[in-house]
Amino acid sequence: MVVDAVTCSDILKDATKAVAKIIGKPESYVMILLNSGVPIAFAGTEEPAAYGELISIGGLGAGVNGKLSETIAEILQIKLSIDSSRFYIKFYDSPRPFFGFNGSTF
């Protein structure tokens, strides 16, 4: 599925705001990548599907991850008609020294 520029921009804005709010970090620390047009098979079909990875330095946990999964799935359903049953998201809680930014690490 190829996503048009307007829809892509809307998804990036919505997802950035949602992730920042749910994790409790400023939007300036949130980066979203949307890579459309990549072939994907899910549950044996090529119907619309998505895979995501979310990396954070702290702020993750069972409750937060559930809310993130729910919210991102809702964005994908509304903007791309991807059913939540066709979306996986993997969460990583990264130690500060394992994440680089601005020529250093956190």
TrEMBL record:
Catalytic activity: L-dopachrome = 5,6-dihydroxyindole-2-carboxylate; 3-phenylpyruvate = enol-phenylpyruvate
Keywords: Cytokine, Isomerase, Secreted
This protein's record includes keyword Transcription regulation: no
EC primary class: isomerase
InterPro entries for the chain: Macrophage_inhib_fac, Tautomerase/MIF_sf
Domain of life: Eukaryota
Subcellular location(s) of the protein: Secreted
Family: Belongs to the MIF family.
Protein name per its UniProtKB record: L-dopachrome isomerase
Organism, scientific name: Brassica napus
